[in-house]
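Appendix C reproduces, verbatim, an entry submitted by the partner laboratory led by Prof. M.T., so that reviewers can inspect both the input and the predicted structure.
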Amino acid sequence: QLHPVESGGGLVQPGGSLRLSCAASGSFANIRSLAWYRQAPGKQRELVASITADGTTDYTDSVKGRFTISRDNAKNTLYLQMNSLKPEDTAVYYCMTRPPFGFWGQGTQVTVSS
């Protein structure tokens, strides 16, 4: 099972950028699909973006053109580059398999506010 550790969150102004990272001790190479999820206050957790072992990506409509997911199997690291951030992107961001299977980490807080 995946044991992720997320990092890179913070407080940014609208229009700013952040790069999130997710590290794990195990190998990502044999995991078919990895993903970033987020949960905003008072909202259910939602899938933000996913990437398969061969590099195929998928994004929820609200982040298309602004976010980019990538994976480095050699470093066992998953990334999420977030540009043109909006207040509605405020949430705790988590990395996990798709579909979810493993232990949820603490996540990393992203707050977009002026």
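Strands lie at 5-7, 10-12, 18-23, 33-39, 46-52, 57-59, 67-72, 77-82, 91-97, 108-112. Additional entries are available on request from the coordinating office.
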